[in-house]
Amino acid sequence: MNDINFAVLGTGGIGRRALEVSADKDELTPIAACDRHGVAVNHDGLDVDELLAATEGNIASDGGTTVESGGDDIKEHGDDKGVVASTQAEPTETPIEDIIAEHEAIDAVLIALPNLEHDFIPTVAERFANAGYEGVLVDVLKRSRVIGMLDDREEQLEESGITFVCGAGATPGLLTGAAALAAQSFIEIEEVEIWWGVGLKSGYEDNRGTVREDIAHLPDYDIESARALSDEEIEEIVDAHDSVIEFNDMEHADDVLLERAGICDAEDVTVGGVLDLRNDEKPTTTTVKVTGRTFDGEVGTNTFELDDDTSMEANVNGPALGYLKAAVRRNWTGDYGVYGPAELMPGF
Amino acid sequence: MNDINFAVLGTGGIGRRALEVSADKDELTPIAACDRHGVAVNHDGLDVDELLAATEGNIASDGGTTVESGGDDIKEHGDDKGVVASTQAEPTETPIEDIIAEHEAIDAVLIALPNLEHDFIPTVAERFANAGYEGVLVDVLKRSRVIGMLDDREEQLEESGITFVCGAGATPGLLTGAAALAAQSFIEIEEVEIWWGVGLKSGYEDNRGTVREDIAHLPDYDIESARALSDEEIEEIVDAHDSVIEFNDMEHADDVLLERAGICDAEDVTVGGVLDLRNDEKPTTTTVKVTGRTFDGEVGTNTFELDDDTSMEANVNGPALGYLKAAVRRNWTGDYGVYGPAELMPGF
User: Fold this and answer.
1) Chain A residues near residue B323 by CB distance under 8 angstroms
2) B186 to A305: CB separation less than 8 angstroms, yes or no
3) Does B69 share its domain with B160?
4) Do A108 and A179 belong together in one domain?
5) Fewer C-beta neighbours within 10 Å, C or N terminus of chain A?
6) Residue B163: beta bridge partners?
7) Which spans in A183-296 are helix H?
8) pTM for the structure as a whole
9) Co-location of A255 and A317 in the same domain
């Protein structure tokens, strides 16, 4: 496979780590990155070490990811804000347009913008399509309802030559992929149970976007009310849970993505987990259990389990880049459209 | 996705069960099947129930799979032998050629011929290519050395428009797929351990091909010497092990297939397992353990585990058809060549 030139939209936690992990992956060359204030482009490949070092601490309260939202909460570093602290970056008012302007040099774009209004990523995809981009778009979304918005745009994306993989992080990405594979033993799936444990080594301070998004899954909150919370209010919620928050029946895209892949009904999928903000250890083991019936009439449960020592960061960014590579191979043979991770697995 | 018309070469245990499982899968229509004595073709779809009922007991000492080998050890059923017992089948001297003659109606072929000389399946692939077949070929091979023979023919297969997936059964198919997915947490893989347990419900009598092939993995045997064994000699070996045979450091294609996919070196992969011919229960749990290093410096082991109640048959045939479907989607977009199952997973 030839080298893949890719861009990252958003240089918050996920975007930064994707750049870092890509340095250890064959075939991947990051050539562009942006945040809301700046854009760095180098067709020969960005100097990731410099960019990460210069922008260390570049984590806004929303994860540093709300490019173009006009907020002002990126931590400053040196004289400049965010990615502009890198010598490779230029300030800009239009970071996404600046990346789109480079589209002919780009094979794939990782959209590392997890915590925005629901139609933001579909709209970004539309802008790439309008510009005539032929290539891959990958996001790491978690919410079910975004998928439908992408489907509404599928024809336009196909016409442009875009292969869009949505939800390619840890959940739904890695875990629905595992569920799709585990389902292969069966002819009928009765239940898929996804249970995750996250211990945020770096704590709330460095994972504000993720924590805020997770809080939106608590019974008394939704996306809008969680976005309206101040840092202090979030810290109060965290304290009220003694820094260990359990989630049940989450609106995670795992369900709709497994249904899209024909594996089971969305209602047969349950997603929950525990987030521990006190320490590095995972509070519970991340597990996927797929229960089904075999052709010879047995009922069994296949299990996929992540080691407690693999961090959320490792489990988001490895799969995101893995699905990105798989999508590029499809894109290069003319396979366009919107896919969930499970649809890239063996068929069910 | 449109309907997939597929053919099965070989109606021994694997071929028969693939037909059976396909009845429970969307999008799959079996339109042709053959064994060494006969061929059944119906472009509107075979009557699988009739074919399986009519040929029940059609298990030769080689698994019923050595079409064209001229042997005479298929169990008789009624007046005819093998697939010819079905009202849908005709006797033939050239079963594979007869299937190839139908190639324009066929999207995919499952080659269910596990126990033949090493170059047999590569040669079959060549014959399809020579006939101008555009479509998918899938085998369920286990031996490492066959892959190289397929690679030697890759250019010819690509020119014809063939997408070949080799080793798409339980091992290497399902388990290397799981290893590829489990590897996504890591930037470097230290070790992949594959350990399988098989309890053959149906016993030696109904699984002669599989048992013979497994015996070839014992330290004192190889393919040639195992093929030369009489049924009585095989039964003696089984008895000498009290019907429970443990295998270590097997020459299983899992190693080369994971190396092809760029996941680790072949020597970092170990394959072993236990075959119990006494009873239905698996003697040990089938497990894939992938140990690697994350980008943030931790070492961990992700685990994939099959329920003991899923039979070998379920774990071979589900994945074989699952990979077949995935390969057809690739084939229809012009993605030709030779792939291992792990290469169809997210990139590493």
Assistant:
1) 346
2) no
3) yes
4) no
5) N
6) B136, B337
7) 208-215, 223-227, 231-240, 254-260
8) 0.91
9) no
**DSSP for residue A75:** P
Residues A15 and A163 in one domain: yes
Q: Is the ipTM of this complex over 0.85?
A: yes
**Number of structural domains, chain B?**
2
Residue-wise pLDDT tens digits, B85-142: 999 999 999 999 999 999 999 999 999 985 567 788 999 999 999 999 999 999 998 8
**B18 CB-contact burial (10 Å; exposed 0-12 / middle 13-18 / buried 19+):** buried
Residues 290-319 of B with CB under 8 A from A: 294-296, 298-311, 313-315, 317-319
Considering the domain architecture, whether residues B107 and B213 belong to the same structural domain is answered as no
ω into residue A172 within 30 of 0, thus cis?
yes
Question: Distance from A331 to chain B by nearest Cα, in Å?
Answer: 10
Any idea which residue has 């933001």 for tokens?
A: A120
- A10 and A135 belong to one structural domain: yes
Domain that holds residue B195: 174-308
For the record, the structure tokens of B237 come out as: 């070996």
Check residue B161 and give its pLDDT: 97
Closest CA to A146 of A169, A186, A119: A119
Tell me the mean pLDDT per 10 residues along chain A, length 348.
89 92 94 95 97 74 39 44 90 96 98 77 95 96 83 94 95 96 98 94 72 89 89 91 93 92 96 90 96 97 97 94 96 94 94
